[in-house]
Hints:
This protein is α+β, with helices and mostly antiparallel strands.
Amino acid sequence: MSDFVSALERRHSQYAITGTSKVPDAELVETIKRITLSVPSAFNSQSQRVVVLFGADHARLWNIVKDALRDVAADEEAFAKTQAKIDTFAAGHGTVLFFDDTAVTTDLGVRFPLYAEHFPSYAEQSNGMLQLAVWTALSERGLGASLQHYHPLIDVAVRRDFALPATWSLMAQMPFGDVVRPAESSERIDADERVRVLGL
């Protein structure tokens, strides 16, 4: 089995993470930059955008999430459970934010009207590839991460607090850090039920 496939197999959602990282921050950022340049995109649009948060900015993100969820929680008891969950993400060393630059995606629709209605889904596919690539790389370096989705509740506050362009549409949040307690492997549907082979 190739190292690539083995790395994919080892990647799991890790929720018990800490505020430390066995990988220096500069190395993490360089790795994410290399991955961002390497992951493909439809029509070579390169509309994926990434923000890597450390320290106070990482903490600020999860405070934004808590504030947004407090406003929509059914009651204090429900929010307390939500807050406990968010605190596990805030306990991490950092967060990777994934965006699509909608200015790029919209322009593609103008330039290639035959495919215009499909470009948003193409952008999601490209962003998903980037998310998986970064997640797998973090796992390969011994860090734990999980993929979270608290948008669109937090979109406006994230763009405001981190001074991001209005055209950047938030697609996912990935808290990461050293693993405190490895998660158990999730149950997998047998591959033969999910993969069909024809013509052999």
